[in-house]
Known about the structure:
Blueprint: H1 2-30, H2 46-58, H3 61-74, H4 77-84, H5 89-100, H6 105-108, H7 110-116, H8 122-143, H9 146-151, H10 153-182, H11 189-201, H12 205-214, H13 221-250, H14 253-284, H15 293-313, H16 317-326, H17 332-361, H18 370-397, H19 402-412, H20 416-428, H21 434-449, H22 451-461, H23 471-474, E1 479-485, H24 488-502, E2 509-518, H25 527-545, E3 549-556, H26 559-569, E4 574-578, H27 588-593, H28 596-600, H29 602-609, H30 623-631, E5 636-640, E6 649-654, H31 661-673, E7 676-681, H32 690-702, E8 707-711, H33 717-721, E9 725-729, H34 730-739, E10 749-754
Parallel strand pairs: 1-2, 1-4, 2-3, 4-5, 6-7, 6-9, 7-8, 9-10
Antiparallel strand pairs: 5-10
Helix pairs in contact: 4-5, 5-17, 8-16, 8-17, 10-11, 10-13, 10-18, 11-13, 11-20, 12-13, 13-14, 13-19, 14-15, 15-16, 18-19, 18-21, 19-22, 20-21, 24-25, 26-30
Amino acid sequence: MKKFKNSIFYIGIIGVFTAIMYWIVLLGGKLETGRNISEPDTGRTQWDEFVHALLHNLQHPLAILLAQIVIILVVRIFGWICNKIGQPTVIGEILAGIILGPSLLGLYHPEISAVLFPKESLGNLQFLSQIGLILFMFVIGMELDLKVLKNKAHDAVVISHASIIIPFTLGMGLAYYIYSSFAPSDVKFTSFALFLGIAMSITAFPVLARIVQERGLHKTRLGTIVITCAAADDITAWCLLAAVIAIVKAGTFVSALYIIGLSAVYVFIMIKIVRPFIVRIGNLYYTRESLSKPIVAIFFLTLLLSAYATEIIGIHALFGAFMAGAIMPENIKFRNIFIEKVEDVAVVLLLPLFFVFTGLRTEIGLLNDSYLWKITGLIVAVAVAGKFIGSALAAKFVGQNWKESLIIGALMNTRGLMELVVLNIGYDLGVLTPEIFAMMVIMALVTTFMTGPALDLINVVFKSKEDAIPAEISQINKFKILVSFGNPERGKSLLKLANSLIKKMNGNAAVTAMHLVPTNEMHFYNIEQYEKESFAPIIQESENLKQKITTMFKASNDIDSEITEVANKGEYDLLIVGVGQSIFEGSLLGKILGFTTRFINPEKLLNQVTGRESLFENTPFDDRTQNILHKSKVPVGVLIDNNFTSADQVFIPVFSENDTFLIQLAQKLIHNSGSQITFIDISGNIKNNPGLKEKIRAIEQTAPNHITIQNENIINKDFLAGQNLMLVSVESWKKLIDANIPWLPDIPSTLILKENS
């Protein structure tokens, strides 16, 4: 009754007030009498008017900008592809920008390029991308760990400054060689040479930090040195860049001294006045509950005022953003929360605009003869010689061996996004011509792309390829279990299960708990804290179980492959992972579309194109689990965790003789946990197979009263409610899913097993 009452009220009130508004319009129409009001005669029908208005809306600057952002976010798939082949995401995003720009799309389909990126719209795109850069540089400043610089400053500063002064000098020498042919006619040699010098000497701290994490170097002495070098390089290079900009804008070095002096005052105010105030606020408000909007506004105001001040002084807003980040409170919780607030918008939404804008400026078609490509090759050679060789020689001089020196050189040669920032500043100031800009962008791509292959080559040459597992694990000659977890709480269930299989083996077994995290979710400054927090519940659970474990932590850009690589190289006897979940699983969209996720997931689509996977293959696993099962050469157990606590009551449905390997695990559970095992004889597979019966009988002889054989009819809700765990092979699990077995929704925790390949 209440439902009908509400409906009647809703219809009544809408109807009455609509009638009143219509009546007011009619009365208002009479007031138009005597006024010179006429309808414009455009000669268009109402439909034509609608189409005309629609086309006008499509050409509105805001509509164009929004369309450009959508296109740019879609082409970020190039970054995903580079990530999958072990290259920094920045390379793919730069390439995406070049493809959308005059180098490809504008060259072959200028009409499409003109519609998507009209010249009059590029100003809006540039300013929005600059906002993204300001936010990103703020994050970079916060990611710098100044304590590391203090603790490891001596060797790192020697290497870092050598890796700046050598390429800077070579860059100025290169400028002398190409100034007459390529410098703008109204630019002084000093300005041109200084910009080429700074462009040659830059290192991309964010990209370098992620490579160090991915390769597991962050805990090593070498990794610490490299990160410290990059941090010192970053600070020094940005200070030099500020000085170079001041000289270029002022025209002469003497005039630039005023700007440099004003900059020194700005830095003093930021460190001695602003920082103590900001630190005090950060120490008071560092939790999510206390970090309210007014407090957040104070920090953003500091960022914007700092960027504004440096822009007005004449050393670019990006330096102010970097400085604002560097003086932020060192409290890790505060920085985590604040970076989360800033980074998603800056990195996911706004930063790709900068890459595409750079690509739109990059006209590779201008390099239209062999001489220009020779100059490009010369620029790349000078960049590599100055940064790679300069850093390596400096590292060797301070006492590193040749392998470590070359690794330091290869990593310091990474330029990435930082190089593009410098180049765009030079382009905006008119110091770099379009030809030189294109050459330098190519140099940035080449030197960033070569980092990974160079590191691999160094490891091969020195015959010391990096192991995917610690040496203490590879030397264990015991029954070894690798537990790979994402969520720490689920990891506790995986550890309990592993313990159920080995707890009475008297030291003849080993468990490794591994946690991998996507590279783009990690920040170097808090990686140790993140690792500690991730493993805390697992270590606590291991102490409760009295189970000794070895922990492994690593950032990776391909977690599926990393898990299987560790398992295969470590020759583990069992890999246990938790099952993942599709974003559409259990949703109405998933039920209606069925295989929609196959088209949304790029990796799934790639597998279908290459023939590794059927387009309409029915798989009961998510993509991650499917990849692990496919790549692993060791036995794999996939746990569907339904609040697993113990393995007291276990049942095993047997579909065929291929399920024989499950009997071995049943034997381990009986021996180590005293499990009661119930074999479910599906369609008489045990009864009619003497081999299976003999294996089960052999266990009964050593552990009587622990095994029961039943037929399928016993499986009901009451039976399942009394079970703690189901063991089933991958093939049998697929059969259960395909047959849509009615008791599946009521199963307990389930371990789905695959034999070694």
